[in-house]
Amino acid sequence: MERIVAATDLTLRGAPALLRAAKLAREFRVPLTLLHVVDEDLPDALRRSQQLQAKGLLDAEVDRLGSAYGIEVEAQVEVGSDAYTIARTAEALGADWVVVGSSQPLLEAGKRLGSATKRLMRETDLPLLVVRNDVEGGYRRVLVAIDLIDASRRVLGLAHRLAETEPLQVLHVPQDPAGRDSTDAAATYTDPAARAALESLLANAGFEAGAATPLIRLGQVDNLLPRVADEVEADLVAIGTTTQAKGAVERWLMGSHAEHALSHVVTDLLIVPLEAS
Prior knowledge:
Helices cover about 45% and strands about 20% of the residues. The chain has eight helices and ten strands.
């Protein structure tokens, strides 16, 4: 059975993540666990006090969300370090998704949370949904950034599950030996081979004609992704990462795009760990 774990810091900025997690639990018909981690480095008395307070707040959320969404919800309070404990608890529960909150996507406004989310991204091999915006229904405009590798099919599949309406917008940024850069996010790269390769990947992933819109752009992925997300009016951006790869250099290189997106993309963000090729 699938399970969603929603990790919360019990502040107002995390409220949209709990609502989104509850909505997905209802749609997927799976149980939801609300998780809060108390800092293991706190003095004993303060730590125990925070555990009791957190349990009371989570129990109230369990009642509220369970009643509002008609779902199975439970609360869990753990003591440890934030990212490591969230990842290990989600794995122990057999979770398939981890949902976290974020009120500010930009570096200057969200440095602390962005840092914690980056640590979590490197600790878990579960899909990570970062909720930045208020919940106003399902995701209607989903942008997926992929490479032309088989592992990208996992990103496509999970993004498709979250998309409520409209075709997926699928962005690929091919390597360009000429070093050209599109200064206009709407400028489309028209190389027939690149488009054919992207369309072939989509077909092999099970997407029928019209279910996904291929977008091919020239430039730097980190610069293009926020611009294209704005162009297509995306409310969710999905991207893969191989930060679970064994080599430290490979982890840094392959995780950098997802980490940049955490700091610069203003929509909700789905980060999907992929097997290193």
